[in-house]
């Protein structure tokens, strides 16, 4: 971080760990954040915690400190970025069935997951022609940006990933598969699922796209486009800085912004629909 205090520090973190007292943890976190101007979403489940929050730097770092003081979260990996103002409108602390929804009760993170590959080593892995590179994110996220040569499963939600595996990956159990997602959480669960299905050589980008954009210089990057995020910044570019996307005001689809369109954003599809005259019947 630079020596200049940002308007907002954004922290994204998750951990798969057994949590018995989900209600108590939710209340403790809600009270802590509500006592400070911390906004964002924290999901708590019996399988772990998943969150992205924003606030004054001292408040956000204090939240991370109290989590690190809990033995369950002592080695919590956190990805930081900055924003000019809160990218979230309110605070939500929820108990969920899963911290990332795959929808399969039998998929447990106690099973071995993928080999973690650091961002600095990722380019070499995905440049190997024998490696199948899979983007585990949703179709609209992939459209905003992805790695060169990556396969788009064309899912609308993460719970559709097992269907993609059944359709397109089932005959590749001996192949090296390199997966990535925004921050790592979807890959971690997807890799556990692949392992349970008999896939042997599974790799994932450690820290996800966000860590790659933080550590890898644009001149060395194999990333193309921007990284969609689920907050009002919409997308981030290299250096985990806010990118150049907004959301379509009609359908909510991410769209690249031109400066003159920032106050009246429509995606190409909705723009075409608006230009098509109605036919009287």
Written description of the protein model:
With about 280 residues, this protein is of the alpha/beta class. The protein is built from 8 helices and 16 strands. The chain has helices at about 20-35, 55-70, 120-125, 140-145, 160-170, 185-195, 210-215, 270-275, and strands at about 10-15, 40-45, 50-55, 75-85, 90-95, 115, 130-135, 145, 175-180, 200-205, 225, 225-230, 235, 240, 245, 255. It has a 5-stranded mixed sheet, with helices on one face. A hairpin with a 2-residue loop joins β2 (about 40-45) and β3 (about 50-55). The protein is globular and about 50 Å long. The termini are far apart.
Q: What topology does this entry show?
A:
Blueprint: E1 8-16, H1 22-34, E2 39-45, E3 48-55, H2 57-68, E4 77-83, E5 91-95, E6 115-117, H3 119-126, E7 131-135, H4 139-144, E8 145-147, H5 161-169, E9 176-180, H6 185-196, E10 202-205, H7 208-215, E11 223-225, E12 227-228, E13 235-237, E14 241-242, E15 245-247, E16 254-256, H8 268-275
Parallel strand pairs: 2-5, 6-10, 7-9, 9-10
Antiparallel strand pairs: 1-3, 1-4, 2-3, 8-11, 12-13, 13-14, 15-16
The geometry reads as globular
SS element count, helices: 8
Number of strands: 16
From the alpha carbons, calculate the radius of gyration and give it in angstroms: 20 Å
Q: Structural class given helices, strands, pairing? A: alpha/beta
Largest sheet features: 5 strands, mixed
Unreliable runs: 1-5
Measure the end-to-end span. 61 Å
Q: What strand line-up does the widest sheet have?
A: 4-1-3-2-5
- Average pLDDT, all residues: 90
Q: SSE string, helix = H, strand = E?
A: EHEEHEEEHEHEHEHEHEEEEEEH
Q: Give the amount of beta strand, in percent.
A: 25-35%
Q: What is the helix content?
A: 25-40%
């Amino acid at each position: 971080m630079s020596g200049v205090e940002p308007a907002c520090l954004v922290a994204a973190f998750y951990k798969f760990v057994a949590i018995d007292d989900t209600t108590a943890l939710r209340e403790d976190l809600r009270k802590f954040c509500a006592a400070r101007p911390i906004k964002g979403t924290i999901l708590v489940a019996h399988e772990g915690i998943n969150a992205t929050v924003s606030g004054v730097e001292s408040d956000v770092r204090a939240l991370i400190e109290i989590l690190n003081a809990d033995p369950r979260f002592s080695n919590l990996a956190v990805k930081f970025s900055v924003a000019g103002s809160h990218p979230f409108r309110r605070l939500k602390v929820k108990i969920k069935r899963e911290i990332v929804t795959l929808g399969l009760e039998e998929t447990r993170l106690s099973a071995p997951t993928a080999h973690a590959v650091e961002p600095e080593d990722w380019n070499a892995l995905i440049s190997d022609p024998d490696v199948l590179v899979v983007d585990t994110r949703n179709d609209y996220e992939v459209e905003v940006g992805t790695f060169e040569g990556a396969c788009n499963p064309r899912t609308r939600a993460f719970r559709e990933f097992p269907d993609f595996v059944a359709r397109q990956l089932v005959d590749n159990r001996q192949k090296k598969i390199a997966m990535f997602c925004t921050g790592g959480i979807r890959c971690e669960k997807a890799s556990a699922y692949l392992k349970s299905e008999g896939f042997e050589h599974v790799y994932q980008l450690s820290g996800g796209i966000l860590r790659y954009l933080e550590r890898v210089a644009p001149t060395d990057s194999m990333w193309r486009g921007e990284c969609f995020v689920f907050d009002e910044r919409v997308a981030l570019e290299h250096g985990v800085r806010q990118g150049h996307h907004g959301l379509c005001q009609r359908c909510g689809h991410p769209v690249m912004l031109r400066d003159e369109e920032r106050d009246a954003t429509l995606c190409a599809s909705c723009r075409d629909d608006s230009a098509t005259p109605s036919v009287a019947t």
